[in-house]
């Protein structure tokens, strides 16, 4: 009984709750231990490594470097680097294969369907497709990223693993969800790869601020840029036109620009035409599948033939001419040029005096009548000629009048001054050798300034207005599927006719000759339109591809 009485009385003090509490404590400690055990194991593998992705030294193999940097940055699931699939030839089943076709085991067909389903899902997984140069993992030539969002962290990883790729030439991004902020990061990445990267394609990435013109900055090395399907409107075209050229700057690296499948109208086409006025590097331009009508088409056609300079352009041209003159005068100091003309006059006088002395040697009165200043000039001129004989061909033309052989040697150097034309200097007869040595260098200097400053091209004055010869550098223009009518066709017909006359007149000399390929099909005019038929007829002999095809066909018929 005592035990029975003590049991209920001692129940509050019984150790059962204590044991439960202690057991509860034990279980809590076990849970904490279970939670802390992986924490003690994972830090060196899962936490410390992602903190130091910058310490990783890239090996130049994109597949290894990208995976390692993603792991160190904390990514558990990231895109894989795979080879870009090539289109397979059409499969033609042979008779032997058709004979072996037998009803398959249902289990085998089920496994095949499962594999095919998995392969379909694998196709939609994010990947980084690469194209190799010579089946070498270190020779990545092009990168293709399509259909998955490229975040700023991924671009940071690219900025680490892409610069070591010494043969990377092109980056293609299609529908990767770029923003104006990530575009700035992407441009910084392009600067890191600028030694080899020449082609960039951003397609299906509409930006709210339409800041694609940043890819065409003056320090850009991109030669081929594709901006298709980006919803670029007239405002974006204005920024792109200003990136092509302005009155004080011009892009000199971009060779091809693809603006197809956008929303560019007449106003935007006018801005692109303004960019072509002073741009002399762009060879290939596509404005296909836009909203350009006759007004924009006439603007584009106008800059491809002689056009009138605006007042601002005329003022800038005069400023450039003055600046060019001061630079050339600084290369050849005025004092030395005056010294040259002085010595030339002294020599001519000296030659005249010697001739008179030979005619009448005994006439001493003429020798006495010669002034003292002239005698001093004679002494100075003789001293100059002696110095020339001692110095030889190493003397520059600005220090004295060299001999014929010396002039030819000096013409090969870098000291030739183009504005000192021999015909304008009196008292000196220059032989054909000197002309041949001086003219090529002066032409080269002029050509270099023409390339740098298109406003310094030869101009034509008509009725008090200044006309430039127009852009003859653009070779390819695509205006397929716009809204151009016969009115716009007349402008392009006049342009093609002028460029044909220009190319015939310039057939002997080298240089740009104008459009070689012009596409105006699928616009708002009939294919039998007389202006369109005439343009096709005139452009047919200029198209190098069609000329090559005709030559190949002729060789096939007459081997």
Short description:
This protein is α/β, with parallel strands linked by helices and 559 residues long.
- The CATH architecture of the domain at 222-324 and 458-503 and 516-558 can be given as Alpha-Beta Horseshoe
Outline type = globular
Can you identify the CATH class of the domain at 222-324 and 458-503 and 516-558?
Answer: Alpha Beta
State the separation between the terminal residues, measured CA to CA: 129 Å
Protein name: Leucine rich repeat containing 71
Region (Disordered): 1-53, 85-105, 320-422
Biased composition (Low complexity): 1-18
InterPro entries: Leu-rich_rpt (IPR001611), LRR-containing_protein_71 (IPR053040), LRR_dom_sf (IPR032675)
Descriptive notes:
This is Leucine rich repeat containing 71. The protein is α/β, with parallel strands linked by helices and 559 residues long. Among the domains are: 102 residues, no CATH class; 192 residues, Alpha-Beta Horseshoe (Leucine-rich repeat, LRR (right-handed beta-alpha superhelix)). The protein is 50% helix and 9% strand. The chain contains 20 helices and 13 strands. The strands form 2 sheets. It has a 10-stranded mixed β-sheet with strand order 1-2-3-4-5-6-7-8-12-13, covered by helices on one side. The chain has a 3-stranded antiparallel β-sheet with strand order 9-11-10, with no helix packed on it. Helix 7 links the parallel strand 3 and strand 4. Helix 4 packs across helix 7. It is globular and about 75 Å long. The N terminus is likely disordered.
